[in-house]
Amino acid sequence: MRPRPVSSTRLAVSFITALIVANVSGPQYIYPAFGASLTTRFGWSALENSLVSTAPFVGVSFSGPLCAFMIERLGKRKTMLISAFLCFSGSFLLAQSYIGRLSHNVILCAFYLICTGIGGSASYLCALDSQAQNFKSHRGMSMGLTSASVGLCGLVFSQINDFFFINKENPNDNRIYGFLIFMAITMASGMILGSFFLVVQDQEEDEVDDVKPKNNHSNDISRVVIQSETSPLLQTKSTSLSGLKFFLHPAGFALFFTMFIVLGFGYVYLAGIGQMLMSLSQDPTVGSQHLRNIHVSIFSIGNCVSRALFGTLSDFLKRRFHIHRLWIFWSASLAFLLTTNFLVRSVDSADDLLFGTIMMAIVYGAVFGVAPASTAEFGTQVFVRNWGWLLYSPAFGSQIFNILFGILYDAQAKRQGAQFCKGAVCFQNTFLIGNVLGVACLFVLGWAIANQRSKKYLSVSTST
């Protein structure tokens, strides 16, 4: 019996709902709006702050397989309700710690943020999966827009924080408690909404089998073009690839490595923007929260636009010119290399950091905007599983590089004999390491692209 198709109206409602769900599923992008206030209030060191600041991102990334398991076993509705509970509980408990009703122990605060990260990851994965299943012919655009929506999360919440939760007469009176309560209620409400309106268009076959030659006598070139258009990362007859085989595939490994480096350092930049601004500011106590909100907003806008733009662009390039999505990653890695070089050599003041924020946001958004569509090309039926495991790469990257950032920052502060490090030297060594790893990224992606090209030529020769 064939499944009954979902109406176009319900698909449209589901599409809009997915964007709303994604927009409240990014606690890792909201954290910079209030993270520095936690550090100041609790007196954390740079290393302790680095551990806490990566907690939401660790929750988002390391919970990938768990979230995939919940979606496959419990379904989207129950998973969304669990997500709402986790996000509300984590933010609410953190708010109680902020005003002293609960302990502000570093481990506890990190645990609360990890809970919000897990909830955000599960709800975002539900939104992405619904888009991957419903809009296969425009996968790059639909998933890119959904990815852009979660990137816009930081802008929305940082601006709300700036307008409603900062005392204009006393900028240092941040009213973070009220903001955390607002964050808890808003995130939970958006996820509960998604539990009712997210739907999936049933498909009997994967996209790899959707496009077939109409003429049995098609020439060799047309067969290669059809194969390239349907699944450019897979040159076999298999409709899906997951598990260890996914990571051993050159394109799968290149995706993992690129996300490890670029997204890892990208989140280090976002999470550490408060400390970097304090290091470059003449008086870090005057209007620092407003300045952080500006940079978080700029990062969110650049991240959002980049995700939507490059997600859609990857569709256009693949369909019109048969260009692998891997070329988007290669270009983003080149931009990452140039950005880290700028941060090492050309930043002397807080004003100089603005260009670094814009460039890092574009690079970060490009990778995160195209990665879901690239992952789905290994099979939409295993997309949730593959994406869940793939999220380990930025999780490891952000944790490792953020700890590195904290260690180098504290070491430089000790050399200066002060609690807070001053000058661009506080973070230059971290991004110098990123600069070197950016070169490695280009080589790995170049190898993967060359491998894909050689397999395409091989498929032509074997069919003649």
Automatic annotation (TrEMBL):
UniProt entry tagged with the keyword Ligase: no
Residue stretches spanning the membrane: 51-71, 105-128, 140-157, 177-200, 246-274, 326-347, 353-375, 387-409, 429-450
Gene Ontology molecular-function annotations: transmembrane transporter activity
Cellular component, GO annotation: membrane
Alphabetical keyword list: Membrane, Signal, Transmembrane, Transmembrane helix
Subcellular location: Membrane
Name under which the protein is recorded: Major facilitator superfamily (MFS) profile domain-containing protein
